[in-house]
Amino acid sequence: MSTFLKSREAMLALALVALVALVESRFRGFAAPGNLAAVFNDTSVLMILALGQMLVIMTKCIDLSVAANLALTGMTVALVNAAAPGVPVVALIALAVGLGLLLGAFNGLLVWLLDIPPIVVTLGTLTIYRGVVFVISGGEWINSFEMSPAFTALPRMVILGLPVLSWIALLVVLLVAVLVRLTPLGRAILAVGGNAHAAVYTGISVGFTRFMAFVISGGLAGLCGYLWVSRYAVAYTDVAVGFELDVVAACVIGGVSIAGGIGTVGGAVLGALFLGVIKNALPVAGISPFWQLAISGAAIIVAVALNARAERTKGRIILKSAEHAA
Amino acid sequence: MSLAEGTRPRHIPDRLSGRMGHALRSWELLLLLVGVAIFVANSLLSPYFLSPWNLSDATFNFTEKAMIAFAVAMLIIAGEIDLSVAAIIALASTLMGLALQHGAGTPVLVGVGLLTGLLCGLVNGTLVTRLGLPSIVATIGTMSLYRGISYIVLGDEAFNGYPASFALFGQGYAWWVISWELVIFAVLAVAFGVLLHRTNFGRQVYVIGNNDTAAAFSGVRVQRVKMILFLLTGLMSGVAAVCLTSRLGSTRPSIAQGWELEIVTMVVLGGVSILGGSGSILGVVLAALVMGMVTFGLGLLNVPGIVMSVFIGALLIGVIAIPRLIRLARTGRAA
What we know:
The structure holds 2 protein chains of 2 kinds.
Chain A: H1 2-6, H2 8-26, H3 33-58, H4 66-83, H5 89-113, H6 118-137, H7 149-153, E1 158-159, E2 162-163, H8 164-182, H9 184-194, H10 196-201, H11 206-232, H12 243-253, H13 265-284, H14 292-314, H15 320-325
Antiparallel strand pairs in A: 1-2
Chain B: H1 19-24, H2 27-45, H3 52-59, H4 63-77, H5 85-101, H6 106-130, H7 135-154, E1 159-160, H8 168-171, E2 173-175, E3 178-179, H9 180-198, H10 200-210, H11 212-217, H12 222-248, E4 250-251, H13 259-269, H14 281-300, H15 305-331
Antiparallel strand pairs in B: 1-4, 2-3
């Protein structure tokens, strides 16, 4: 119990509650269940992407292409929907996830087989994917009247008091938690980030594990592509531009270590919710939305600095002299 | 990823290959050939390419980015990176605009721009060298922070009405078609070439990039060198901010959006290893020329900007992937 209270998730949960209480004390009604559910719903996409990103970061990589992947898959399904409204939504979701998986696999292959640093790969694919959105759409917008009603209605459909969008986010949280805790791949992801050399000795393919992390991140980004475009009922080239930074921020705030090997599903979810609450509190408090970028940036820096301190004190000193040398 | 990469013994030849033989196989020569090929292709594809004034205009495609790329190249050689450079331009430009609103003249504007750059570099350097944060994440954070401040100040507004004397840096010509910006670029290229290749400081940068523990044991003050590099990168972003603001004559918070990617591409295309430890300023200069000509040539062919960025992204990955693919094909297994 005491270790639980000291854990990062508990601290973050407390900070989150304090933040909500602070906003509530100034602006009555913010903490009402209905509004909190709305905030959760609004944060769903960020949460899903953060969980994919968490897996990638835990293997000591980074995926900066998720927002461009989202834009490309979103535009693709919107174009298909506009051209052939008869195609069932389920098929479109499958298309979005499949395309996202492919885009993620492309990143993963470059990292795995060619051993190119992930930051270079995903900075490159970030511009390529975003450019392809422009090419396939010709720079045009797909507006809500061009989309079929079924296409835009699904994320909003309410089941048991919550919109489908929220349910999908909860399902992804559950699946990723199972993946990390109960599957060999999840354990391999932790092992690769914790100590790549030791992972090799236990028979884990570091490259393949990283590849799989990119594939999952890509697939989730594809899913979000459909969710984003259908929820806002519009698709254009600059959809979710710069959103990859929010995703990385959510992970870092959630205690996922950029050095790999450390991270929890709960942390990533709380990190995303923390940003979501701030984003939703700004307009309530009458602060210009232009503040959001700077706040995300400051949150990233503070969170990384805190993580670095926490990791330093916890450091495993095996060989004292070697530790000092490094 | 192979096992214990750092511990694999390095192959040290008994005799270093001759200067000529080395030069013939070098990355720089390859870049030069690619540059010449693009130049010839451009002049064949578009009748407007081979005009002195058009070529002069084309230099603006790379001069400002290259100024920053020199400093970023040194940072990457030392094993760090700075992704906040474009955001520093935005912040420096915004603060210059603010100073303008308060009646500042050209010298003060330039001072504000350079000082902002230095200050941002100081923040980055402090986060990395004092707090020990990984530079990728720290500078992703400051990238949002700096540009975020720009957005807070400007929102959807813009600053303009810079004085005529301020236009010199981005719009003035030193002689015939040679712009002042091109002169600044050339001077900085030589200065950075000397700094990296002819001074103790430059050698220390390479040593740190190859093995910073060994560097520390040989008496190199690793953190101080890194701090200086971050300051230098900040300062160069400030210089670029002055040039770009002067050239555009206005400031928006979205100024220089996405440049960090193009700058890293320029550095990597120039043969600097993204893992640190090797690279040259000559390579970066050639890469700047190649990229400038590619974007200018595509522009003459009416290719939209965002499609050009697809080329830049493909270039970034291709330049690293192709040599590795060739090696992969040769050895038949992952390196």
